[in-house]
Amino acid sequence: METSKWLRRAVAALIAGGLVAVSGAFAQEPIRIGAFVSATGPAAFLGDPEQKTLELYGERLNAAGGVLGRKLELVVYDDAGDAEKARTFAKRLIEQDRVDVIVGGSTTGTTMAVVPLAEQAQVPFISLAGAVVIVEPTKKWVFKTPHTDRMACEKIFADLRARNLTKLALISGSGGFDKSMRAECLKVAAKYGIEVVADETYGAADNDMTAQLTKIRASGAQAVLNAGFGQGPAIVTRNYRQVGLTLPLYQSHGVASKEYIKLSGPAAEGVRLPAAALLVAEILPDGDSQKPVVVAYRKSYEDRFKSDVSTFGGHAYDGLMLAVEAMRRANSTDKAKVRDALEATKGYVGTGGVVTMSAADHMGLGLDAFRMLEVKGGTWSLVK
After folding, report:
1. What pLDDT digit, counting tens, does each position of 314-341 carry?
2. CATH 3.40.50.2300 in the chain, residue ranges
3. CATH number corresponding to 150-275
4. Virtual CA dihedral for 325, 331, 332, 337, nearest 10 degrees?
5. Would you tell me how many other CB atoms lie within 10 Å of the CB of residue 8?
6. Whole-number Å distance between alpha carbons of 270 and 276
């Protein structure tokens, strides 16, 4: 009887020991990736593909064995484009969810609401928003993936100069990105020999911009640039044709998706804008270093979600992959080590371009990362 009890205890001890060993090998704490995006609300065209992308590639990374032998756990909140909600969710990500890194911030407004929190908590934060103010001046813990609004201005102005057009009319929305891009365009116009001869604005709820465009028609402008994103640029485009304007029309990279063309209809024909290579993945030259990356992302996204790819989902892909690669190079999830590894990123080929960061540059993209596109036949084409 005593022998039997001893055997049972011994077997139980062995089983328990085995379970502990298995637990140690396979049940490490997950790596927590935090995100806040505008999946609903007026900026849903940004946040929805961003959230889908993070979920898709989180699953893929886990299926391939995770990162550093650990599972990724994605914690995502929908801020609906509200800066105060973004701040609340970021605080929760940092204090309650205890994430290792934050990849998110669909808009400039939501991003800037969170920057002080990330800096104070010393958590690496990779923003998906466009304004240059996010990374200039450089913040120690803040990075971003999209091209800046200033770069968009410069790319457009270089194209204007190539077309011998020097008199420009500006029209812009009232959002954070719109205001920032307008300001950046005004700052760099003289550098490119561009004279701004009109400067009109519209509100977020406006659904008719014909009054502003009629003023622009009488301004002597040779081209028009709409600094904005969301529904506003599509309304501007439709109204543009309605008032009889035939001047070249440029839009920002804030409308770099097929949705803009759908909303604008035939009026979008001939519109130009700077954008990432992702929108023209299939027609890139075979020797382009980005082509394999953007073609693979486009196929994966469209196969999974049965909807057109956008550059905004691409920003999320780059944010996640930059974070993952930094962890791998640091061989750690220690926040300071990951931050240092992000800052040391060199030659990362993403959907937005080839990224090389430094202590003075927390975006790492040059002007050549932008492609100038034109709407032809209801789709995007590359401007040669």
Report:
1. 999 999 999 999 999 999 999 999 999 9
2. 31-147+290-369, 150-275
3. 3.40.50.2300
4. -80
5. 10
6. 18
| CA 119 to chain CA centroid, nearest Å | 20
The one-letter amino acid code at 202 reads Y
Contact 277, 288 (CB under 8 A): yes
Calpha distance 10→22 (Å, rounded): 18
pLDDT at 226 over 80: yes
Q: Are 46 and 38 in contact (CB under 8 A)?
A: yes
Nearest CA to 372 among 49, 207, 154, 198? 154
Residues pairing with 33 in the sheet: 74, 101
At 65-98, the pLDDT tens digits run 999 999 999 999 999 999 999 999 999 999 999 9
Single out the residue of 22, 113, 37 nearest to residue 75, CA to CA: 37
Tell me, what amino acid is at 101?
A: V
- Fold for the domain defined by 31-147+290-369: Rossmann fold (3.40.50)
Residue type, 143: F
Residue matched to tokens 């061989």: 331
Are 229 and 263 in contact, with CB atoms under 8 Å apart? no
Radius of gyration, alpha carbons of the chain? 24
- Tens digit of each residue's pLDDT (9 = 90 or more) over 21-32: 333 433 589 999
